Amino acid sequence: MKIGKATTPSSAICTSDEDTIVVRGRDLCAEVIGKLSFTEYFFLLLTGKAPTKATLKVLDATLVAITEHGLVPSVQAARMTYAASPEALQGAVAAGLLGCGSVILGASANAGEMLDEVKQRMSSGKSLQDSARDVVSEYRAARKPLPGYGHPLHKSRDPRVSALFNTASEAGSDLSYVEIAEEIEKVIPEIVGKPLKLNVSAAIPAVLLGAGFPLQALRGVPILARSAGLVAHLYEEQQSPIGFALSYQATREYEYTGDMPSND
Amino acid sequence: MKIGKATTPSSAICTSDEDTIVVRGRDLCAEVIGKLSFTEYFFLLLTGKAPTKATLKVLDATLVAITEHGLVPSVQAARMTYAASPEALQGAVAAGLLGCGSVILGASANAGEMLDEVKQRMSSGKSLQDSARDVVSEYRAARKPLPGYGHPLHKSRDPRVSALFNTASEAGSDLSYVEIAEEIEKVIPEIVGKPLKLNVSAAIPAVLLGAGFPLQALRGVPILARSAGLVAHLYEEQQSPIGFALSYQATREYEYTGDMPSND
Amino acid sequence: MKIGKATTPSSAICTSDEDTIVVRGRDLCAEVIGKLSFTEYFFLLLTGKAPTKATLKVLDATLVAITEHGLVPSVQAARMTYAASPEALQGAVAAGLLGCGSVILGASANAGEMLDEVKQRMSSGKSLQDSARDVVSEYRAARKPLPGYGHPLHKSRDPRVSALFNTASEAGSDLSYVEIAEEIEKVIPEIVGKPLKLNVSAAIPAVLLGAGFPLQALRGVPILARSAGLVAHLYEEQQSPIGFALSYQATREYEYTGDMPSND
Amino acid sequence: MKIGKATTPSSAICTSDEDTIVVRGRDLCAEVIGKLSFTEYFFLLLTGKAPTKATLKVLDATLVAITEHGLVPSVQAARMTYAASPEALQGAVAAGLLGCGSVILGASANAGEMLDEVKQRMSSGKSLQDSARDVVSEYRAARKPLPGYGHPLHKSRDPRVSALFNTASEAGSDLSYVEIAEEIEKVIPEIVGKPLKLNVSAAIPAVLLGAGFPLQALRGVPILARSAGLVAHLYEEQQSPIGFALSYQATREYEYTGDMPSND
User: Is the pLDDT of residue C173 over 80?
Assistant: First the structure.
């Protein structure tokens, strides 16, 4: 039995023979290793083009901004997994990445789509303010959350937001999505009835889209960033284990709400 | 029931409150975002110290060297997974990383341990050549493979090896592990009976250990690197799917070797 | 920093002390081990109730129906992962399960929701035929695929469908969702313009919902079933490896569509 | 580039065409669905043979014994993952399985190897007691832990042990590995200096090896069992979420041990 389509697999990313590895049209060994930083190379692999200086600055800043935020659930899951399966570091990193889904880190990509919707309204002649109001109102009407606004810990603005916006501004990167993100923040109180401040999940697409990062690839940014954070945590876990201690603490006040056997 | 130890979890990596995120003793927003590259930050998170220029150069080069090598098994697994589960990019990246184990990318860490064993012999006064010979002979006697030597495709030396060694040399990084790696390559023919050339898995620890990267954290390097390659492949998969085509091709000549039902 | 909610974790599934493990109100060692089959226990853990004989028969049949279907993409991904990382069987199973997503095995849960929508229309007095027509028409209008109808290989009806329906019928299980599934199959040609036959993904919820299996838990059924199939494949992989051969075959006709370096 | 071997993939597990699915020589739809339980089918897929009644009884009992043990680390990791990524149930199950590694559930397979070593000594004529003593002494000399003996919670014998041994005995299954396991328990105090009671990880191979379950496939048993437990927990998580509450509790007493920024 054959599963899948009878087509020939192709890719524009890499080819190689015994002597040469070609990536995106460049000789890996002659033109890339030692010449490009890891971040520059990531952008090249993803888009086929080397980043400009401004784009590189912005991409490095966004990766740095979300690499690490302490013992968040995905880091806890990874450290518990490593404690139980120290033979497979890759499994513990994978377990941590599996928590980079829609609720937490996936919000960046959703926020990017919202910003892009506003941008599209503007390209048909509507003002920034009206476009932002329309999109926020439509999200509210459809009872969709506003991705990238509000944060359980940072009730005022998430401090990473300004750091990212300043970096984009100093790098001379396009700020049009930043303006959109800030306009959305401004119109939220009147439409939603309470202030929801920009958090890092909206700031990331705001600066990345302006820097030419593809909208459809946004979900990959937190995943790559967290891989670095997870590797750091798992190295610490190897040296100073807390995986099982986290698990102990988590259930210290555990309540069983089911039935007990009747002892007849 | 409590699982795990009754100890308090601690970590030296990150803390935060409503206004500030502190990573390795630095204010993330004031001192890190926009100031450090992703690679610099990775080294800081992992070791607690900022990398020197030479270390940064070498770490970037090693990450770049192993980020991508075409449609290797782990990339195929990731693209098939994404084709079947496009709602979960994180799952496809995780599936790809799960193939970064002992046989393929895990060889870097094992090679690092072998280089380090030679180094330790030397620190007790033995010559480089004798130390290399002893360690290679012991691996052979124990029937252990020599991790980082030999490659199915690159029968002569993997071209990434020279690129990494040149980068380390130009950056002014410590080359003592590079010398060890080359000495091992020299003594292999007489001991093993055939030439096994240095491949990228031995070159990575050779340059990284000289640059001050922790031996115990080597396994994390290919995992982080491949995350970037996987994100690039999965973005291409989203735009130009081949996941099911790979699966079709893989079983075009499939043979079922079991029994068939008897049609009585 | 605290992530998450300040509430006390509770669960109705299990509690234990030094002498006793209680699951869903029963003493695991005195009342469950050796008394319940694995399938009965799965239903008990999931719902808190032991299955009736009819429910058990149907649940066993559905699990059996989707445990195995040859070298499908998720099995290929798992075998490639195991070949690269033989130290971590759990990682290879996980890689295989990560392909049990929305496109392939996730269709069962989506089909269950479609059947349930028809059921709900009927409970407000509409006829089976009208309810089925309305729901299929609405899916078409919204350009949503009809989950569980059509199959790339089994152009006529998937043979597993009748086997499941017969099992449910012989077991005396409620067949009302089976009737809904068959009515949908009947109305498809006029609405869609081509016949799309019931496949196993619609047959599974058709029999399971009638057997009292919770709609919201349907996604777990193929995941559990495939775990068994993956363990069998990975045991065969350990004894007769084909993981790398699959990868080789998959790229035999690979085409690189990117640029080549200019050799100036 | 081609990765992998130029061989044709083959498998003895399954083949299919448009009308028939054949598994291990049987017609899935005519001979398996509705006829075999999930556990019987798992054994058939794995070994190519249907289990005897005694083997089925023992295999069901072992699967049941380790499906569930409350909010253990892998369940916590899975529930945290699901809370963050509810769009991907398969990812949360995978995250949980990734913790089924060497330290916790992997012990079953290691214990099986230890029992088998004793069995092999006996087959060369040595007594049960001497064989057990020799193997335990060798493990101690090599500073290897004794897998399957001792338990953090169940200081006396894990109650699942007797339940499994009784099931095997009542089913008329071969008890020779059970005798080995109990002999090891007897000789431990004199060799190790303290009593380490049989736990479920040694009891599982003790009954399964006697029932004809393949030694090399033991690692798959807890993985399959835990898949069922994880699906039950994740269904409860969907209905009554505690994933983020677990994470909150885990870090309530978190201590940051790194430096703080100097505020100059």
Answer: yes
- Let me know if residue B57 belongs to a domain: no
8 Å CB contact between C63 and D38: yes
Contact residues, chain C, for A3 at CB < 8 Å: 70-73, 152-153
pLDDT at B123 over 90: yes
Please name the residues in contact with B244: beta carbons below 8 A apart, sequence gap of 6 or more: A3, A4, A5, B80, B83, C73
Q: Indicate the pLDDT class of residue C155, thresholds 50, 70 and 90.
A: low
- Residues pairing with B256 in the sheet: D11
Chain D residues closer than 8 Å to A84 by CB: 73-74, 99-101, 103-105
D239 pLDDT higher than 80? yes
**How much is the pLDDT for B1?**
46
Which CATH number covers residue B204?
1.10.230.10
0.90 exceeded by pTM: yes
Grade residue B150 by pLDDT with cuts at 50, 70 and 90.
Answer: confident
**Is residue D46, in this structure, part of any structural domain at all?**
no
Domain that holds residue D172: 113-216
Chains that touch B (3 or more CB pairs under 8 A): A, C, D
Question: Is the confidence at residue D5, as pLDDT, over 60?
Answer: no
pLDDT digits (tens, 9 = 90+) for A171-209: 999 999 999 999 999 999 999 999 999 999 999 999 999
Which pairs with CB-CB distance under 8 Å and at least 24 residues apart come from D42-50? D42/C67, D42/C228, D42/C231, D42/C232, D42/D224, D43/D213, D45/C67, D45/C68, D45/C228, D45/C229, D45/C232, D45/D13, D46/C231, D46/C232, D46/C235, D46/D214, D46/D217, D46/D220, D47/D212, D47/D213, D47/D214, D48/B258, D48/D12, D48/D24
Sign of CA dihedral A117, A120, A125, A127: positive
The string of pLDDT tens digits covering residues D99-146 is: 998 877 778 999 999 999 999 999 999 999 999 999 999 999 999 999
- Among the partner-chain residues B6, B69, B214, the one whose CB lies closest to the CB of A14 is B69
What is the domain count for chain B? 1
Comparing CA positions, the residue from C196, C185, C201, C166 lying closest to residue C69 is: C201
In degrees and rounded to multiples of 5, residue A99 shows phi and psi of -90, 5
Q: What is the pLDDT of residues A118-162, one digit of tens each?
A: 999 999 999 999 999 999 999 999 999 999 998 766 567 788 999
**A242 vs B9: CB contact, 8 Å cut-off?**
yes
Predicted ipTM?
A: 0.95
In chain C, what residues touch B85 (CB-CB under 8 Å)? 98-104, 106
| Angle of CA points C171, C175, C179, to nearest 5° | 145
Of the candidates C1, C22, C253, which has its C-beta nearest A70's C-beta? C1
Q: Which residues of A touch D73 (CB under 8 A)?
A: 80-81, 83-84, 243-244, 247
Amino acid making up residue A88: A
Q: Which residues pair with B55 in a beta bridge?
A: none
pLDDT of residue C1: 46
Tally of CA atoms within 13 A in the half-sphere of C75 that contains its CB: 30
A129, part of any domain: yes
- Token pair for residue D167? 């099931």
Cα distance between residue A25 and residue A32, in whole Å: 11
Rounded to the nearest 5°, which phi and psi values hold at B187?
Answer: -85, -15
DSSP code, position A27:
E
B247 and C76: CB-CB below 8 Å? yes
Put simply, the answer to whether A152 touches C260 (Cβ < 8 Å) is: no
B51-99 per-position pLDDT tens digit: 999 999 999 999 999 999 999 999 999 999 999 999 999 999 999 999 9
Which among A29, A38, A60 has CB closest to B63?
A38
Tell me whether residue D47 is in a domain: no
